[in-house]
Design brief:
The protein is of the alpha/beta class. It is 49% helix and 15% strand. Helix 3 runs antiparallel to helix 12, helix 7 runs antiparallel to helix 14 and helix 13 packs antiparallel against helix 14.
Length: 352
């Protein structure tokens, strides 16, 4: 009896001292696989900070060199953005990154992940996306033939203005550069006059007074040096330009099951890094634009920043809820029910 106990103890000790199986042994069975990837805009901070390192370094390293990818930025690919889902569905593209607002012309359901004014801060945006993700996964797969891999956030889309915005009413009558119909509708609801202008033409438009304000990500505006002509920052996030990484279902079904499992796990790594880094970027970008606080990522400027007060935020929630209700009616009964059971429940919003 004593011998058997001693033998068991020695076996346990030997097991605890044994060298653990190296990580690459777990990926040795992976077949060599290569992906052609169209990522986000290469001018964005997270492209160089997260996307490029992930596809070109993390993926090969974690797979023992078995899984590789060639990443091209959206602008370098010659694509505009709205056609990403259609190209993946047609099998013309392996893996692509898109923005839901850009592809919503294919399906109004996509708009529900980032309705204007619904998320007043980054934490709420993250909560909203997490709640709506199952709806998106099912819709993208069953309706569009693409599989959602990771959600992608950007910094809050805020106002860069020529003259100060001290209160919400100051937006009335202002000509505001917007992106997309939803954003334009929101600005119109606030009394502004939305104007459609390409990103590259915003600075001369601000200089000449074609627009009084322009909306973009707080980080993107800094990177584009909008602070040279717009000295005032109004911290009212219209939306968060929520995007996605997805893979064509045709391509997915051709992958070895081991590669599928590996990619699902790695996609979680990519998503976590994108959200974490974008959260940091938003904090640093505010500090950079105002010249106050820790400016690590962008360029230090001297913008004056203001934000809605509590009374104004209550009014903004009413505007956002009204817009969400109109979208739900346009999207359909099933769409509205799915949104209410996910985002609506998570944020405590009841459609009208």
């Amino acid at each position: 009896m004593k011998c058997s106990i001693l033998a068991a103890l020695l076996a346990a000790v030997a097991s605890s001292l044994a060298t653990p199986e190296p990580a690459n042994a777990q990926t040795a069975a992976l077949p060599e696989t290569h992906f052609a990837v169209v990522g986000g805009g290469s001018h964005n901070y997270t492209f160089s900070a997260v996307e490029k390192p992930f596809w070109e370094k993390t993926l090969p390293q974690d797979s023992g060199g078995k899984i590789t990818a060639e990443l091209v930025g959206l602008s370098e690919s010659g694509l505009k953005g709205p056609e990403i889902v259609r190209l993946m569905r047609a099998g013309a593209l392996d893996v692509g990154m898109g923005v839901f607002a850009f592809v919503s012309g294919d399906d109004p359901t996509f708009e529900g992940v980032d309705l204007p004014g619904m998320a007043a801060d980054f934490a709420t945006a993250r909560k909203m996306v997490a709640a709506y993700r199952p709806v998106l996964e099912q819709r993208m797969l069953k309706r569009h033939g693409v599989r959602l891999l990771a959600t992608v956030p950007y910094t809050g889309q805020v106002f860069f203005c020529r003259s100060p915005i001290t209160r919400l009413a100051d937006l009335k009558g202002r000509k505001v550069r917007t992106r997309g119909s939803n954003m334009a509708e929101y600005v119109r609801a606030l009394g502004g006059a939305p104007v459609t202008i390409p990103f590259a033409e915003v600075i001369p438009a601000l200089q000449t007074g074609v627009v009084d304000c322009a909306v973009t990500g707080i980080g993107s505006g800094n990177a584009a040096k909008w602070y040279d002509v717009a000295k005032n920052l109004y911290l009212l996030p219209i939306d968060w330009s929520i995007g996605f990484y997805a893979i064509a279902e045709r391509r997915w079904q051709k992958l070895d099951p081991a590669v599928q499992q590996f990619m699902l796990k790695e996609a979680q790594v990519l998503e976590q890094r994108l959200w974490d880094e974008t959260g940091r970027e938003g904090e640093y970008a505010l500090a950079c634009n105002t010249g106050q606080g820790e400016c690590r990522i962008h360029t230090k400027a001297d913008m004056h920043a203001t934000a809605p007060d509590e009374a104004e935020r209550a009014a903004l929630r009413e505007v956002a809820t009204d817009m969400a209700s109109r979208w739900a009616r346009r999207c359909g009964e099933e769409c509205a029910a799915n949104w209410s059971a996910s985002v609506g429940q998570a944020l405590g919003v009841t459609l009208r």
